[in-house]
Amino acid sequence: MSPKILSIDDSKAVRMIVQRAFRPYDCTICEASNGEEGLAVAANEKPDLILLDITMPVMDGVAMLAALKKNPELKDIPVIMLTAEHGRENVANIVSLGVRDYLVKPFKDEQIVEKAQGVLPLQPKPVAVAA
Amino acid sequence: MTKEHTLMPSPHANDMIKKFGLESASESVQLLTAMISKRGANMEDFAKIVAQDNDLSERLLRAANPRATCKAEYRATTVEDALQRIGMSFALLLAMSDPLLRAIFNAFQTMLNIELTALPPKELTPLETEHVLGEVTFVGKTTGLVHLRLPCSAVPLIGERLLGLTPDDLADPGIANDVLGEMCNMVVGNFKSNLCDAGLQCKLSAPKIARTTDFKIQIVNGGTSERYAFRSEELEFFTDLSVNPWVECWK
């Protein structure tokens, strides 16, 4: 089964960039626009990787990460932070909660794929063969 | 320089910066903002830090001698003279603009493949007709705002470069505003991180995108402002930064 990636960002533009970056790979992308929605999608979809923004309405990424790590069913899902915020104190706080990696916006498509490949075995999409 | 104004990141912080490839502002900028955050700024220490940074010293001297066309015409010839003329607030604004400008160059290059050059604002045609204004404000140990002022023609360019969107896609103001808002977020989020690293903790507002014909630079209460201009093959635009580094406000 192809790996599932959950992209959580309040910006539709960023979610579209994530979709585009992973389009050549055999994986499924699901989305949420805030931490609360992200927790619900994570519980339903059980993704293999979460890409998480920090500053979001309703529930921010740090609060969502803390809630995720407290949930025995979800706590082992690897998380990569994808955010413009990289203040040392912020990063230290987030790292202490447990993240696999940290990618600062702005980023290139290949950077996010490379970070994800550090966590998941991503394979190129099989080429469709005409009958 | 007093000992409290040296900056020693913890070994743990350094490990994380290395591991995740994070970037910090230049040391002089961090030292100056750290000095302000401790509310212990004095002109002598301030001048010593500025004098160690050639680029910042030159910008400060240029700002203190606005009518001079070359160095020979400078009336304020030392960093101390320049600080006396323009004051520490404006000098700090110059220092703080450094991480902001770097964030702008980086965001436009990485996300849009646009190579920008900074130039004096008077060299660009003012945006006196309707243009797009992206605003992000920050409150905390320092307060201020960042305005990105782009011509309306920038919207299809940014939408196409960022996401391959067509003018039809961007006719939906929700999508156009989201694209522009994310560019503002990337720029100001990086800027804010540099301020926080230097002890000026603050929080950002969500970006506000509007169309306006008002090109006047806004100044936050009790603060100072500066306008920056950028040019590339594809685009010309302005950015305004206004800061009051002396008042702590979290609302």
Highlighted features:
heterodimer, A: about 130 residues, alpha/beta, 5-stranded parallel sheet, 5 strands, about 40% helix, B: alpha+beta, Hypothetical protein af1432, Chemotaxis protein chec, 7-stranded antiparallel sheet, 8 helices, 7 strands, disordered N terminus
Strand order of the largest sheet of chain A: 2-1-3-4-5
CATH class of chain A, named Alpha Beta
Strand tally of chain B: 7
Number of domains of chain B: 2
Number of domains of chain A: 1
Coarse morphology of chain A: globular
Helix proportion of chain B: 40-55%
> How many E-type strands of chain A?
5
Major sheet of chain B: 7 strands, antiparallel
Largest interface: A-B, 28 and 37 residues
Number of H/I helices of chain B: 8
Q: State the end-to-end CA separation of chain A.
A: 24 Å
- Arithmetic mean of pLDDT of chain B: 84
Radius of gyration of chain B: 19 Å
Write the layout of secondary structure elements.
The complex is a heterodimer of chains A (131) and B (251).
Chain A: E1 4-8, H1 12-22, E2 28-32, H2 35-45, E3 49-52, H3 61-70, E4 79-83, H4 88-97, E5 101-104, H5 109-117
Parallel strand pairs in A: 1-2, 1-3, 3-4, 4-5
Helix pairs in contact in A: 1-5, 2-3
Chain B: H1 11-20, H2 27-37, H3 43-51, H4 54-64, H5 79-112, E1 117-119, E2 131-140, E3 143-151, H6 154-163, H7 167-170, H8 173-197, E4 202-204, E5 208-212, E6 224-231, E7 236-244
Antiparallel strand pairs in B: 1-6, 2-3, 2-4, 2-5, 3-7, 6-7
Helix pairs in contact in B: 2-5, 3-5, 4-5, 5-8
